[in-house]
Amino acid sequence: MDSNELQAFGVFKPVGHLVVSFPNAEQADAGRHALQRLGFSDDDIHAYTDQEMMRQIAADLERASPLAGVGQELNLIKAHQALAERGYHWLVVRAENDAKARTAAEALQQAGAERAQLYGRFVIEEMIEHAADLPQVKDSPDAGLDAQTPSGLESERAALRPPKDNTAAD
């Protein structure tokens, strides 16, 4: 998948896809296997490491049109940036319809997914709910993404997970 094909106003907006974050590569792999068991093909599933997502986000922020600030796309890529900085990995999954997206999101949550957003033409829907989530209250892009944390910052949710250990044991 060429991420340039999935752009809106210069930022990544994969309409008809789930963008799913996992705390680590192993859980992302488990998510891929869960999707394959549901009948998703390899062509429907695209993996991004934390570093690949950071490069994607940097490119998005560099080329974003002022119109990208009208919706939540910029806020979401900043939320993804906070997670990528903590070592999160992603799957971007083509979902033909809402039912397939919901089935996929359930399986991905069981595999360890932290978040899953379904990108529609006009609405980006959060597909994984957390017990502590409250009704979304921020509708303005200027207010940022409603991170569902006491501070309102996405980095707080990421901080609930231990940081990625970049040191390899010999």
Structure description:
The protein has helices at 25-37, 50-63, 73-84, 98-110, 154-159; strands spanning 7-8, 11-12, 17-22, 45-48, 89-94, 115-119, 124-126. The longest helix is centred in the N-terminal third of the chain and has 14 residues, at 50-63. The protein has five helices and seven strands. Helix 1 (25-37) crosses helix 4 (98-110). The chain is an alpha+beta fold and 170 residues long. The chain is globular. It has a single domain (6-159), classed as 2-Layer Sandwich (Alpha-Beta Plaits), CATH 3.30.70. The chain has a five-stranded antiparallel sheet, sandwiched between helices. The chain has a two-stranded antiparallel ribbon with strand order 1-2.
In short:
The chain has helices spanning 25-37, 50-63, 73-84, 98-110, 154-159; strands spanning 7-8, 11-12, 17-22, 45-48, 89-94, 115-119, 124-126. It has 170 residues and is of the alpha+beta class. It has a five-stranded antiparallel beta sheet with strand order 4-5-3-6-7, with helices on both faces. Strands 1-2 form a two-stranded antiparallel ribbon.
List the helices and strands and how they pair.
Elements: E1 7-8, E2 11-12, E3 17-22, H1 25-37, E4 45-48, H2 50-63, H3 73-84, E5 89-94, H4 98-110, E6 115-119, E7 124-126, H5 154-159
Antiparallel strand pairs: 1-2, 3-5, 3-6, 4-5, 6-7
Identify the overall geometry. Answer: globular
Sequence of secondary-structure elements: EEEHEHHEHEEH
The CATH topology is given as Alpha-Beta Plaits
Mean pLDDT: 78
Largest sheet: 5 strands, antiparallel
Structural class comes to: alpha+beta
Gap between N and C termini? 36 Å
Count of DSSP-assigned helices: 5
Number of strands: 7
List low-pLDDT spans: 1-10, 139-143, 166-170
Return the CATH class: Alpha Beta
CATH architecture classification: 2-Layer Sandwich
Strand content: 15-25%
Strand order of the largest sheet: 4-5-3-6-7
Radius of gyration: 15 Å
Q: How helix-rich are the residues, as a percent range?
A: 25-40%
How many domains would you count in the coordinates? 1
